[in-house]
Amino acid sequence: MTLFTGLLHRKHLYKDGERFATMIPGAETVSITQHMYHMVMNQKRMTMTYTDYEQWLKDNNYEERETG
Hints:
By secondary structure, this protein is an alpha+beta fold.
């Protein structure tokens, strides 16, 4: 998957109804970038496998939504 294709399929991440980050899918990993002025995550950028990503969402009670 190219970066452009990943951007087309990006998802927004929410905690308590507030959007705080964007997830960009890749071929084998996802890239997560925290939005400016939102200190929800410990890091500004993260990369992880899809399996780890799904568990990370559940462990932190984050919600994934389509862009649009």
